[in-house]
Design the sequence.
């Protein structure tokens, strides 16, 4: 906590004691008397402080927003692409098979080029890019049907090189993985070995398709067993699980040093985050300390929390613990609603968009870019 806030807290404590000291002393004498008379061995428990949360509201992305990044037609069937190698067998026509039956060469099939073409005997180049094995078999069968009667064609995948997933971060075996068909999120996670959940930041873990994070909550999937998060991934997806050593919350608004605040040993309280962001007595007079807004989001949902930090500072409410990825807004005087705050904070959110959750990116940034 900064020196200014610490000084303020001390001043408040002295002021409160001077005003309420005699009354508190009388109360203590009465309580001691009652305790010694009625139940001498009964300990006096301190009252539990009230919650600092003023309000809390949950929201989820709409089906239309989810459709922006999740393909409803995603399938686990493997689709062919560049650098894949397939074997083509034409029954009763060994000269048309690839590789040639009885061949002792090193070629073990037909390579799909960067254009998605595969070169086959008699029919030449034929495009199979983005096709499943069954679809490729139909295309090749139709092509050979122009030269032979009722061709019986079989297509097999020899080497899968176009489908890959990237596993980054707190895996025992990270790197690029080449499965032979599209997999669900849990299956892809298994390709990376194990994850030390005690050292992984699942709050800020994410799945990315290119530069876009998809709204999947790995915390709920792995710790709560929420299988609705077990989506089928698309080729080229990356799963990123940061280390818990780099957990952050983000403070913006009426503070002198807006930006990331790092957790210490997995813990960060609201007043601590405000202090480290340069909140001082000047900020205290210009900002609504009793109206701190916190956006807590994971996957496709978010919780909009309003916290009375003044009550915490005055000792009238319990400390409020932040979670990794929380975005804390300190509104200036005259700003009260979530819409006003989000519009005011939009430039700051855009500046750190790469570290924000999929909910924030989709709900507030994509529509304004």
Sequence:
């Amino acid at each position: 906590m900064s020196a200014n806030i610490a000084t303020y807290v001390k001043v408040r404590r002295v002021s409160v004691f001077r005003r309420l000291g005699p009354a508190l002393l009388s109360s203590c004498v009465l309580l001691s008397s009652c305790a010694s008379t009625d139940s001498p061995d009964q300990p006096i428990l301190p009252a539990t402080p009230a919650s600092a949360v003023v309000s809390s509201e949950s929201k989820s992305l709409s089906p239309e927003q989810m459709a922006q990044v999740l393909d409803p037609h995603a399938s686990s069937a493997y689709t062919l692409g560049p650098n894949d190698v397939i074997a083509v067998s034409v029954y009763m026509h060994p000269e048309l098979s690839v590789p040639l039956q009885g061949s002792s060469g090193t070629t073990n099939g037909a390579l799909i080029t960067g254009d998605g073409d595969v070169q086959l005997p008699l029919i030449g180049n034929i495009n199979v890019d983005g096709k499943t094995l069954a679809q490729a078999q139909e295309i090749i069968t139709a092509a050979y049907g122009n030269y032979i009667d009722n061709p019986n064609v079989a297509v097999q995948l020899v080497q899968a090189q176009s489908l890959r997933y990237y596993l980054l971060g707190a895996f025992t075996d990270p790197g690029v993985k080449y499965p032979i068909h599209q997999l669900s999120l849990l299956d892809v996670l298994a390709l990376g070995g194990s994850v030390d959940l005690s050292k992984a930041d699942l709050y800020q873990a994410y799945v990315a398709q290119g530069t876009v994070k998809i709204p999947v909550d790995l915390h709920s999937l792995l710790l709560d067993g929420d299988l609705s998060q077990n989506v089928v991934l698309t080729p080229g997806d990356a799963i990123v699980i940061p280390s818990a050593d780099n957990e952050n919350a983000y403070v913006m608004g009426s503070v002198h040093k807006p930006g990331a605040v790092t957790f210490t040993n997995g813990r960060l309280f609201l007043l601590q985050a405000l202090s480290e962001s340069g909140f001082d007595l000047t900020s205290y007079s210009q900002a609504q300390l009793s109206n701190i807004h916190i956006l807590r989001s994971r996957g496709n949902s978010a919780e909009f929390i309003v916290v009375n930090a003044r009550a915490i500072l005055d000792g009238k409410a319990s400390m409020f613990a932040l979670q990794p990825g929380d975005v804390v807004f300190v509104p200036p005087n005259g700003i009260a609603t979530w819409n006003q705050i989000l519009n005011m904070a939009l430039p700051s959110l855009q500046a750190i968009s790469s570290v924000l959750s999929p909910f924030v990116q989709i709900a507030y940034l994509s529509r304004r870019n």
Q: What stands out?
A: DSSP finds ten helices and 16 strands in the chain.
